[in-house]
Each structure stands twice: as C-alpha cells, then as structure tokens.
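Progress report, Aim 2. The chain analyzed during this reporting quarter is listed below.
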Amino acid sequence: MQKMGNLDYHFLAKELAAALDGGRINKIYSNGVFRLKLNRNGELNFVAEAGVRAHLTKYVEEAPEHPSDFVMLIRKRLDNAKIKSVKQLNFDRLLSFVFDAKDGLFVLVFELFQNGNVVFCGSDDKIIDALKREKYAARVLKPKQPYSPPPSNKKNPLEITEAELPEGKAVAALAKAVNLPPFYLEEACFRAGQKYGAEITDKKAVIAALRSLFDETAPCVYYENEKPVAFAPFPLKKMGAVEPRFFPFLSEAVDAYYSSVERETKRENPAHKKLLHLLETQKTALAEFETKEKEARSAAEYIYANYGDVESAIEKARAERKRELDL
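Predicted structure tokens for the chain:
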C-alpha cells in the first residue's frame, strides 16, 4: 500500500487551505485514526492516520463511545472554533491547523510520519498537550514545552543545487540528500532520462526534473485489473502505458485509493475474515448472555419483591425435610 509523502502533503495543504478556510469544527474523534468533523457549507470530515495518510473523506467510521482525555481537552478548547489556516510545516509530513476559538488562537499539528503524533498548542506555540508525550534528542513533546518540528538534514527539492547532489546510484544517492520519498525520486529520474540504479550522468536534467514535480496539479489514481496500484497529485510518467483516473481534488483521489485498498484487503485477507467470524460469534454469545442476565435479574427482582413469601416457603421446606429425617 502506498503511503502519502511530503510532496503529497505539499499539494494537500494548499487544497485544504482553500476548502476549509472559515469553516468551523463540530467534533473530534480518535480511534487510531484521528478525525475532525467540520462544517463549511455542509459537513466535511478530515482524517489523519500517522505513517499512512491525511485527507478529507466521505467514508466515515463509527465514532468511539469513550473519547480519550486528550480528545476531550481539544473538544473543550475548540468548541465551534473557526479554521483560520492550514499549512505544511518545513516541507515535511506535518500539517498545521490554526483555529480561532472563543479563548483565542490554537494550533493542532498532525505529525504524519511513522509513529507520528498529534500536538495541541496555544498561540505562543507552547504545547498544551500531545496525543503521546515523548522526549527526543532534539525536542520534547510535553505540556508547557515550545513546539518544534523534527529536524531534517535533507534539502528541499526546489532549493537543492547541482553541487549538492551526491555521487552514487541515482535514487539511493538522491534519497540521502533530497527531502522526497523514493516514489517521487523515481519519477524525477524517469523524467530526466536517468536510470534508477545507475550513476547520475546529467545533474542539470535531474535538478530540472525535481523542480518539474511542482509544476502541475492533476490528482489521479492508477488501476491495474480494477485494483488501485498508485496515486499522485499529477500524472506519473514512470507508469508508462497505465492510464490514470483523474479526480478534481487530491483528497478525492487518495480517499478513493485508500477505501478501495481497504475493501480489497478485507476481501483477500483470510485472517480478517476469521476475525470477522469470531466477532460475529462473540456478538451472538454476548446477546445470549445478556438474555440470560436479564432473566436472572428478573428472577432476583421477583425474589426480592416477594422476600417474605420466599422465606416462608424456605422455612416450610426445611421443616418438612427435618420431619422426614426424624421418621
């Protein structure tokens, strides 16, 4: 399954900024996937799953019954708050939402790399709380600490120069210096006429190809045998003759991709089917248990309501038993 990278979030942030500007937050949920229920000329739902994706979706899962303390904190502070801005931070897998709430401005940062986080900050950029309180060598994600994004020693592909391109096999060498995932480094190499596993022969062409990745927006998903195999904010030359299906917005493209992948996984994964069967069995057993529990409770309530008669019947039974034993 393809994971969204920093270039995807570059385009997505611009899209969200236009789509959500002035919208208001209705509710916040988290069950492994963080969801913001929003309203801007109708209901919108934004989902964020660390290490995988973030986008608007029309496929909404059932909300958890018991929200965490972190979710309750944000709900309280951001009740009916207006979205002031959405932007990407440091050309990284970081999306920052700024909200104008009744108590002032607040910032919600989605760290979308593997084992990422959700960080809630005040207008002074100091952390109010984090989904996971953590300490790293370069930063601390705990209340009252200033928020800082994770550091990176890689160059923005729009800023890197020929002199800064390292020697070595193209994709592997570029991955050490350029802040892009291999998925898009391969696309840049293809556009430059550069073989992935060969030494870089034309640095000027590679630089031009890296910058060309920012030129157009035409979100699309590629399918083979009706199964999604890739998505991108623009057509991928490396996909060759595979025809893409285009979407008006990147959110719609990735939403279609992930929902389709999820359906395929559920159909093809025997372990998932086994778990579903087990779940249904447990639901049936639980229903039977609840029925028996109601019957037992009803019997207990009857005994309590007729305690005197029950006690009398028990005493009579004991006396009769004693009389039989004395004979």
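The mean pLDDT is 89. Residues 271-326 form one domain. These observations will guide the mutagenesis work planned for the next reporting period.
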